[in-house]
Give the backbone structure.
Amino acid sequence: MNESDIETLLSGLSPRGPSPALERRVAHELELDQQWLRQPLRRSAARWMMPALWAGAGAAAALAVMTLVQPETPAAPRVAVNFQTPGLLPAGTIREIVRTEDEGIAFNEASQTHEQRVRLYSLERQAWIDPRDGAHITVEMPREESFVLPVSYQ
Amino acid sequence: MAPAADIWKRCFEQVAPRLLLYACQLCPSRADAEDVVQMAFVRWWRRFPGGDENHIPLLYAAVRTIALDQRRSQQRRAAREAASEVALPQGDAPVFDPTPEQKETAAIVQEALEALPEAQREVVTLKLWGGLTFAEIASAMGESINTISGRYRYALQALQKRLAPRRHELLMESPTAAGNVFLFPQPAETLP
């Protein structure tokens, strides 16, 4: 009986198959995977819900502050960016003040009050994330605004 | 085109018996071996959903990794419980599915296999039933090809020594009649 005979003898035996329970367990796990794959966006939405909510809250707060101070000139035309693709989720909005210019106090004849004019240069960064592949999209928008603040003398 | 469920089932039916045989060499019981095969196959299928035959060696590597992890965890538990060392593959759980004519041969071969050191048993299982090449086995076990081929040679010699006295009983049966057809047949490989 040489080594080749041994190899033939051994490989001639078939390994015993798995139990039906094992196949059921594997099927169950793979079915769970399929269920997960069928709802990728819903899961992703849940994952990015909190940053989106925080971004929304930040934007609302910024809007509320902006309404308190009325700009004299209309804001520069905003770049219309529409990222309403279902896959994209807002990740945040950051507004960075680049510089301010104090244009001094002037008398407004129409309202018969003194006003302080301030020019504000800022850079607004809006970011979106595609949760399917983690891609980041960032748009930078430079803004220049002129604010008129009421002045009172005491 | 076959539905996805049928694809994995077909692949599983073909590889599971060989994976289980290999896992049985590393696990203390068949139930543990089935757990290991389940984890390894699911992991592998998630990574290669088409069941690419080129990645079959990775499936065996996954079985090995999971089985060794499981053993380490069992050893820690056993140490905590002051139990005895991890058991060898259970002798009473048959690992082969013999034809009626092969029953005696299967029992003798299983006994002879269990007498081999684990490292040799692994190599023999992967080579003869897994259909892996020495290079693939070496990669899966993190050893050199020379080490693996040496282990295989020593294992065959040990089996030869153990089975030679029962040669007549073994040759009475016709093992070559068994339907052990490899899913992914490898070309005959000579020992380096």
